[in-house]
Specification:
Layout: H1 12-18, E1 25-30, E2 40-45, H2 55-62, H3 66-69, E3 86-89, E4 93-95, E5 97-98, E6 101-102, E7 113-115, H4 124-132, H5 137-146, H6 149-154, H7 159-167
Antiparallel strand pairs: 1-2, 2-3, 4-7, 5-6
Length: 169
């Protein structure tokens, strides 16, 4: 864990520049193994041209749907992502829309949401296992599904893909 990581997300960029001495911090949202929507964020230095290529960061990026890349700044220079990365939990909340309007919660009439786990924490070994998933072919299949219209609109992963993900340990 990085200490003292800022409590306010608006201070994270300044922290990375001032404390970690990154030239141009940027971020890419991506999803953990069973998440249908991005629930993790990878911070990286766009302008790091001298550090070794970060193979894991490049694999995470390769398995991330193209629509997430449109929200991020691509790394400069050859080799893609270089140097250290920082992974933080960053759950996505998506409003569910059903054909003619919003699906409403019958108990309190609020719009319904699909939410990621907002209390997600990982042990070091759990996070290592989660990140190793990005070295598998199934990970690329998941990213390809998330890049389809069905994957973007409905969000939920299909049962056959969940089965493959379950076998991938």
């Amino acid at each position: 864990m990085l200490k003292p990581w800022p409590n306010d997300w608006l201070q994270e960029r300044a922290y990375l520049k001032n404390v970690k001495k990154w030239k141009e911090p940027s971020l890419l949202g991506f999803s953990s193994k069973f998440a249908a929507k991005p629930d993790l964020t990878m911070y990286y230095d766009v302008d790091d041209l001298t550090s070794p290529v970060n193979a894991l960061a490049n694999k995470i990026a390769a398995a991330t749907p193209s629509y997430k890349h449109k929200e991020a700044t691509a790394p400069n220079g050859a080799g893609g992502y270089r140097g250290n990365i920082i992974i933080v939990s960053s759950p996505t909340m998506s409003e569910v829309e059903i054909s003619n309007g919003f699906l409403h919660d019958l108990n309190n009439s609020h719009d319904a949401f699909i939410d990621a786990q907002f209390d997600t924490t990982f042990t070091v070994s759990q996070l290592q296992k989660e990140l190793m998933f990005f070295t598998t072919d199934v990970c690329i299949m998941k990213g390809d599904y998330q890049d389809t219209m069905e994957g973007r609109v409905f969000g939920a992963l299909p049962p056959d893909l969940i089965s493959l993900l379950s076998e991938c340990d």
